[in-house]
Amino acid sequence: MSGGSVTSPAVIELSGVDVFYGASQILFGVGFSVEQGQTMALLGRNGAGKSTTMKAIAGLAPPRRGSVRLNGAETTRQKPHRIACAGLGFVPEDRQVFPQHSVEDNLLIAAKKGPDGRDEWNLERIYEAFPLLVPLRQRMAGRLSGGEQQMLAIARMLMGNPSVLLLDEPSEGLAPIIVQRIGELIRTLRQTGVTILIAEQNMHFCLGLATDATVIDKGQIVFKGSIAALKANDDIRQRYLAL
Ligand SMILES: Nc1ncnc2c1ncn2[C@@H]1O[C@H](COP(=O)(O)OP(=O)(O)OP(=O)(O)O)[C@@H](O)[C@H]1O
Ligand SMILES: [Mg+2]
Question: Ligand 2 centroid to 161 CA: how many Å?
Fold first, then answer.
């Protein structure tokens, strides 16, 4: 894969990951890696296992077998809080803002330094990057529109100064204009040198954002390559992606 010297470990590395919910197995030997500075799209249909993969990385769905490493350190069975402290920022599918708290309180609750003292994000920088949130600072998060909540969820994640970002379907259910804004925002984040993994059903959203793509189907990885190679591969797209 591209980037880094041969000796630097991948930022995210999954190997042979099996995840079960109760008796049913959801992930089957999932393995892929994301290198420093890469933006990886994790693509697959409804129910393919994208969110479960993200939860496995974030410590919310601990693998029964296999391993998850962040920057070379094993995190497979660590608690979500420990994994967050190691630099992982996760925006889940359902966004999970605190509905009874103001926008600003949602941001302040999440404020912390990142690994190795990273502190590029604070309230001021967030309001510069998310001008839409400025007039909403005192509004209860539960009263925001879907697009505003997605912005807030991303902003809140950034307040923890993560070095690795996991975004689960950031464009889902949002109006085209908001989807475009979120796309621009992700492009801006890329330039800060963070490593990004985006789960999406929609390949088109990822085309101008991601460098690489991993496709999952029925809990198994079925394609790994550049996003350009995926775009050119009609067979894989027709078999495994919603068109
Ligand atoms: N808590 C749970 N208990 C049991 N099964 C679950 C649970 N959560 C998800 N599943 C099942 O695991 C499989 C993978 O779900 P997952 O949410 O990872 O898919 P996804 O690719 O994120 O789908 P979507 O695009 O709809 O978000 C699905 O068959 C789903 O029904
Ligand atoms: Mg999902």
Answer: 24
> What atom of ligand 1 comes closest to residue 93's alpha carbon?
27
Sign of CA dihedral 161, 164, 165, 166: negative
Task: Specify the CATH number of the domain 12-240.
Answer: 3.40.50.300
pLDDT 10s digits, 144-167: 999 999 999 999 999 999 999 999
How large is the greatest C-alpha to C-alpha distance in the chain, in angstroms?
A: 49
Query: Which residues form the pocket of ligand 1, taking CB atoms under 6 Å from any ligand atom?
Result: 21, 26, 44, 46-52, 93, 201
What CA–CA distance (Å, rounded) separates 112 from 203?
Answer: 33
Tens digit of each residue's pLDDT (9 = 90 or more) over 202-239: 899 999 899 999 999 999 999 999 999 999 999 999 99
